[in-house]
Each structure stands twice: as structure tokens, then as C-alpha cells.
Amino acid sequence: MDGTKTFQINPANRMTGLPTQFFAGLVRKANAQTAKGRDVINLGQGNPDRPTPEHIVKALQDAAPNPLYHRYPPFSGYPFLKQAVAQRYKEDYGVDLDPEKEVAILFGGKTGLIEISQCLLNPGDICLVPDPGYPDYWSGVAIAGGRMEYMPLTADNAFLPDYDRVKPDIADQAKLMFINYPNNPTGATADGAFYERTVEFAAKHGIVVASDFAYGAIGFDGKQPVSFLQTPGAKEVGVEFYTLSKTYNMAGWRVGFALGNSEIISLINLIQDHYYCSLFGGIQAAAAEALTGSQQCVNDLTSAYESRRNALFGAMDEIGWHAEKPSGSFFCWLPVPKGHTSASFSDYVLEHADVVLAPGIGFGTHGESYVRLGLLAPEERLQEAIHRIGKLNLF
Ligand SMILES: Cc1ncc(COP(=O)(O)O)c(C=O)c1O
């Protein structure tokens, strides 16, 4: 170079078309408040606060020295891990899965949720997404150059999409749809009848269903969440995404699965052949231990979240903040007080109560007038957060 021209990096259109990360701003504000030395209670994120159960960590320690795992693993992962997740689905949901044809191992559920759009959508193709919904669906659709059509989730329909409200021409053009129960951000759960309607709608219009079951293990009041794959016909029209992140507090380990329709599973495996060479074998061994070992840790975790939920709602009652209790996931979907938007309320409680809540608008336009609170702190901290908000006299 002659030194007169400045070298320019021109990102691909794919990069400039990515959705903005709404919550990055919230994280910055929370960090700024912490940097001032304030005692910030961060309930705005979805990062499990407890450690991975000991027996799973021990399985990694035992597996780490094994020279077999120091070599490249098989491209689509070790058969023993696929067998382990198939066994768990059989025991928990009575669902039969062929470990080789109907299971793909993922670097966390997130990668699969992005990959499925790349596998199925051509530029301009329509994907139905829930509003409010988990923002990673948008990322995958944007990278694939697809187009999103929103399915509103509102309290009057128990935060389930109403398929009768999807315009028939949009439904006929749609190639993919995302559903997610137990739901982030609303904490709603779905029953078998909803999944039957989903299979019927998908089959009628030729839409592939991506059921995000990230919170599948977390159901309250004695009700185990239902898997989409339990519905007759589900495997013909779609796949389910499962992850160890929430069930076993393994968010940092990055282990997830796509399960169901064998053609979609082979597409996911194919795209992954180009991106990765599967996870470290020691992590796969520990993941298999999580799935096949004692499930007491899962029951304990769910009970802990339920106690936290009850403690939180007890404190909310005291300050006159009324909301529907979540029936699953670890999120509470709470209405903001009169005179506030979701963003102004989140900013206000961060500034005046040092409590971080995620503004609902960050999950879609139908998230406006709600905030999402994660049950990811001990009961006393959750109660303290509500007491601090109570002192602001907003309710
Ligand atoms: C609804 C939902 N789906 C999927 C994921 C992805 O989880 P992971 O990539 O850790 O498996 C999350 C994580 O927060 C989530 O909330």
C-alpha cells in the first residue's frame, strides 16, 4: 500500500442487516451503576445462578484425561450422547427417538435455533415468530435473509399464538415457525391441545415447526411441561430444541440438541459439518452423565425456582403489584405501573432501586407494558428487590 489510501473493511450486507441487540444497552447501564459502587440486584438476564451439580462436573474431570477425547470427535458427536438424550425423552415424555437419525448435537440450543433458518429459508421466505419472543429467532431469520411475520402472544389467549389470526396467504407462504413453551419471556406453558392445533396448522400450510423447549424441565405446581414431540404427527412437521443449560445449570458448557424430523436433523448435521467438528468429548461424556444419572438435581432445582416464585409474589402482594404467576420457566412477566413504558420503568427502577429488570419491548412490540424478571437470585434478594421497588410508591 502506498500509505495514502486508508484500507477499508466493508462488512457484508448480512452483517449490517442483523437486528440490534436491545439488551446490550441495559447491560451497559447496569454495569455503570455497579461501577458506582451500588448494590445492584440483576434480575434482567436469563443466566442460571447456581452451579452445575457435582456428579456432572466429576464426570468431566474423569473424562478429561482420556486420550480418545483429545482427538477430533465424530463430526456429528458421539453415539453415546445421542442415545442418552433419546433415553431421557423416552423416560420423561414417552417419546421414541432414533438416536442416529432423529438427534443432532448442538453447541447449545442457540446455535440450532440459528441454523434451522439457514437450513430452511431462502432470502425473502417467511418465518412466523412469537411476539414477544426470544430474540435469537430473529437473528437466524436475519442471517438467512428471511422475512418475519409476528404471532402476538397476549394475556387474553394465555400467551399462546392464535393460529386463526394468521392471515391464510401468510400462512401458505410461511416455511418455518417458532414456538416456545415454557415461554421466555412470559412464563406461560402449553398443553397437549395447543400442540395438536400447532401440528394441524403446520401440516395444513406446509410450515416446519421449531419448538424451543429450553425450559422443558421447569414446570410449577406439580405440572410437568408437555413436549411438542408427544403430539401425534409432530415428527412429520418439525423438530424440538432441547438444552442442558437450564435443566442442569450448564449454560457455560454449551450442550443442546435438535430432536425429531429426520430430514431436518440431517440438514442440521450437514450445515454443522461445515461449521464445526462437534463438542469436546469430555463435555459429551459429562452431558451423557447429566441425562442418564440421577434426576434428583432437576427436581431440586425446579422446587427452588418455585419457592423463589412464591417468595417473590408474596413480596409483590405486600406492595400492591399484581401479576399472573408463571407456570413454567424461571421468568415472571410483570405489568408496569400506569404512566410508564416498559423501558422508562426499567430505567427508573435501575436508577432509583438498583434493580435490573428487562423491558418487555426488547422482546417485541407486544412486550410493551411488561417487564421480565428472572428468578435467578436467592429468595431474600428477590424480596429485597421488591421491597426497594415498593419504596418508590409506584403501585
Ligand atoms: C427461549 C430460549 N431458547 C433457547 C435458549 C438458548 O439456550 P442455550 O443456547 O444455552 O442452549 C435460551 C437461553 O436463554 C432461551 O431463553
From TrEMBL:
Top-level taxon in the UniProt lineage: Bacteria
Gene Ontology molecular function: pyridoxal phosphate binding; transaminase activity
Domain Aminotransferase class I/classII large, chain residue ranges per copy: 39-389
Gene3D superfamilies: Aspartate Aminotransferase, domain 1, Type I PLP-dependent aspartate aminotransferase-like (Major domain)
Cofactor names: pyridoxal 5'-phosphate
Keywords assigned by UniProt, alphabetized: Aminotransferase, Transferase
Keyword Transport: no
The name this protein goes by in its record: Aminotransferase
Native source species: Paenibacillus taihuensis
